[in-house]
Amino acid sequence: MNTPPRTNGCMSPLDSFQIIGTIVFILEMVIFVTCYIPSFDYEEVVISASLQGLLFATVTAFWMLGTLSDPTDWLVKKYKRCSRETVESYFHQASLNTSDYTFCTACQSFASKRSKHCRRCNRCVLEFDHHCIWLNNCIGKDNYKFFAGVLVSVLLFSSSFISWCIYSFARFVNNFDTFRSAFSQVLDILCNVRQ
Ligand SMILES: [Zn+2]
Ligand SMILES: [Zn+2]
Question: Which of 77, 151, 176, 182 has its CA 20 to 30 A from that of 124?
Fold first, then answer.
């Protein structure tokens, strides 16, 4: 395995799900600003824009933290280029038992027994949970909190987006008579012009 280890989700190759997810997320915000906001009155604009803007910023912050974090096993990070003897002497000094650790042939380094080697990223990750296709990064002990933050904030952002969509549609239905009479007047004007 000669590919260099990846240290974050922005390193190539990017995942197509990561790109699609980012486009959909930005598209939701564009739809909100261009379709919902113009149909709201001033108070609704202030409330909805504040809430949706805050959730957008929260998702972006957790997404960046989750994508740019490096969950590689600290032993691999610290001792990758060191000889086996150097690592064993460190274990001896720190009163650590070498039997608690394993040697990863792919990383060519000692790693914790609680680590697992991710083939897609070519690195050992401490308490590996899974490789997230949306963040294009491994999820493990060091970045699980960011991944949980992404899950919760995306859920809130999407729920809020759908709620404003339903609210906007309900407003449209309530004001349908107004829309219909305005539409009829426009049609009348157009017909009179053609005659
Ligand atoms: Zn490894
Ligand atoms: Zn991975």
Answer: 151
